[in-house]
Amino acid sequence: MADKYMMATRTNLHFDSPQGKLSIIDIWNVPLQSQKEGRANLDDIAKDLKRKIDAEGAVASFVDESKTADASTHLAFDIVLDVIRVKKTENAAKLAVEKNKALKQKIMEVIERKEGAALDSKPIEELYAELNKLSA
Question: pTM (2 decimals)?
Answer without folding.
Answer: 0.70
